[in-house]
Amino acid sequence: MSVESSLLFALAAVAVVVIVRWAADRTGLPAAALLPVIGIGYALLPGPNVTLDPEIVLTFVLPPLLYSAALDSSLLAIRRNLRTVVSLSVVLVLLTALVIGFGFAWFVTGATLAAGIAVGAAVAPPDPVAALAVGRKVGLPPRLLTLIQGEGLLNDATALTILSVAVAAATGGGFSAPSALGQFLAAVLGGIVVGVLVAYVVRLLSRPLGGDPLTANAVSLATPFAAYLIGERLHVSGVLAVVVAGLIVGHHRPRSASGASRLQTNAVWRFVDFLLEGFVFLLIGQQLPTVIRGLAAYDTSTIVIAVVITTGTVLLLRPLWLILTQSLPRSLHTRLGGDGTDVDRSERLTGREVAVLSWSGTRGVISLAAIFTLPSVTDGGAPFPARDLLLFCTFVVVLVTLVGQGLTFAPIVRKLGLRADETDQARLRNEARSASVEAALDTLDELEAQAHDDLRTHLVDTMRGQLRARMARYRGRLDLLRSDEPVSPGYEAALHIRRVTIDAQREELLRWRDAGRLPDEGLRVLERELDLEERLLPDRPARR
Fold first, then answer.
1. 54 DSSP assignment
2. Where would a tag sit more exposed on the chain, N or C end, judged by fewer CB atoms within 10 A?
């Protein structure tokens, strides 16, 4: 493919991603479920196609996506729900790999236990992109979003480590349970240490460099690749290093980065997520010709049995595991890390929450990238056991979960009526706003008590008046939120007036620019001020 053809292909892919995103916003369907279907349609047409390169995905795509998700996650929330997150991202991944592995060894002709565990490790980790997009749109409670996000951050490291052990056994390296366990623990602990060290270095750099948004953004973009490469060079989990670094940097970013840096970094990462996620989901569908190319060597019954084992295990084991872990006796919960208090008991999932989490296990490009890393031959020169069959089974699991669960996730959530209490969340935000204004007023009182001139007295009084007006606005919102009707017509009218006045200011600035009275550089400065003011307005008044 020539350079011009490659560029044309990339532009066409961007156009498809943009159109699908536009359609998804208006139909309520997740773009992550629509893009693979379009990719399959394109793969069936004559013309150039893109074959998934696992090294590119694991090195250039996975680190930034995981790091961006970690930056937006809550380290404190994940730590509060750590037992459930570890249960899903470590224990369930291992159990899924083992169940599929033994299923292949017992029922699939030509497959070995190691080959079965390899495909089990590939399909075990859910890709939460589709579930999170739908969950945020329908208003899932924050705890469920934390569990879905925390599981998606940590399960890739578990799956890739299990996969490497299984591949070593399948290619002739032999298998030893103590050695495999030691390798897994070394990869996990080493990845955590690398992630902590990278986060520490980033925090040190953020102090002298954080004032410049462009420099801070460059450091942020380089961080996930640095963490991944260092981890892989040290033969530990580079994926886990990226996640740990992102969680720590995201937790400390409110103190270490300037406001301008955070605004620009957040915007850039949203753009990176948009493009990368769109490309990888489009890429999934285009792998259809590759995964079906080698199926002619297998009987139909063998293919059906293998697909049923992998898909059935993925769909059934997750709800069974959630039900089992939530039904454990209280004494066993205590021995597993709980303290038996009412707070600990309240952490158990309800039946509706179990149902939602059970249906949130969509698989994605990581599963395909992992299975494509399987070698073609073993160390002895023999073909890798059932490699083409493993690729097809993985593709079916990804397609069934991503499209099937992705398209039905929102209706199931709505049917169960599981939504966050938006009034409580809005009340908490306004209480925090009021507390921050009170802290500012206390600081003004301390400044006023210091030696100062009349000019400072005037400035302090002016600022105090502005803060008190803001406090009155927040308290008015709290009064509305504590009433039976959280949003009044007057509040919505006030938001409309603010938007209209901002639009009027923009139009006047443009008239000045068009008349030659204001240079474009000055227009951009003033326009940014209005953009920031507009950004503070709620998108949906009912949620504020």
1. H
2. N
pLDDT digits (tens, 9 = 90+) for 160-200: 888 888 888 888 766 666 777 787 888 889 999 999 999 99
b/e per residue 265-274 (b: at least 16 CB within 10 A): bbebbeeebe
Number of H helices, E strands in the chain: 26, 0
**Closest Cα to residue 241, out of 302, 153, 182?**
153
- Residue 467 and residue 463: Cα distance in Å, rounded? 6
Phi first, then psi: what are they for 258, rounded to 5°?
-80, 165
Q: Which residues of 27-39 are buried (b: 16+ CB within 10 A; e: fewer)?
A: eebbbbbbbbbbb
The 10 Å Cβ neighbour count of residue 129 is 23
At residue 450, φ and ψ (nearest 5 deg) are -80, 165
Helix (H, G, I), strand (E, B) or coil at 374: coil
End-to-end CA distance of the chain: give it in Å, rounded.
51
With beta carbons less than 8 A apart as the criterion, state whether 157 and 240 touch: yes
4, amino acid identity: E
Is 377 strand, coil or helix? Answer: strand
pLDDT of 390 reads 93
Type of residue at 512: W
Q: Which residue has the tokens 């803060």?
A: 467
Pick from 138-142, 356-360, 426-430: least confident: 426-430
Do 310 and 102 contact (CB within 8 A), yes or no? no
Angle at the Cα of 133 from the Cα atoms of 130 and 135, rounded to 5 degrees: 105
pLDDT in tens, 244-276: 999 999 888 877 777 777 878 888 998 998 998
C-beta neighbour count of 453 within 10 angstroms: 7
- Strands (E) in 196-299, as ranges, are none
Stated as kind and residue range, the H or E segment containing 381 is none
Q: Residue 206, Cβ neighbours under 10 Å: how many?
A: 22
478 — phi, psi (to 5°)? -60, -40
d(CA 75, CA 445): 35
- Could you count the other beta carbons within 10 Å of the beta carbon of residue 183? 17
Give 265-268's long-range contacts (Cβ < 8 A, gap of 24+).
265/213, 265/216, 265/217, 265/220, 268/217, 268/220, 268/221
CA atoms 146, 150, 152, 153: torsion sign: positive
SS3 (DSSP) at 383 = strand
